[in-house]
Amino acid sequence: MLQPRIPVNPLPTSHPIPPTRTEPMTTPAPVVVQAPAPTPSAKPRGSVQLTPGSAVALAAGGGAVVLVVGAVLVSMLLAVAISAASIAVVAVVLRLLVRDMQKGR
Predict the structure, then answer these.
(1) How far apart are the first and last CA of the chain?
(2) pTM of the prediction?
(3) How far is it, in rounded angstroms, from Cα 33 to Cα 30?
């Protein structure tokens, strides 16, 4: 059931080339060798070079990221502080109400 099945190709993938008979030559023919075309060589990658404009843009982008992350963190801290203060106020009010209810008996 889980055995692999190997497909069988009934036709050959290429046309067979019939063998040709060659007779040895009595005089050697001049051999012309053509030089291969030069291939374009890839330049090795070096270190990244920053122009003054790109350095300023990179510094401005980094500064913007720091400001945005800082603003988000400060707002989260402020939200936690406001929540803690409101919970503390509610706890004090509930404590006073419970104490007043116990005195009224």
Answers:
(1) 83
(2) 0.45
(3) 10
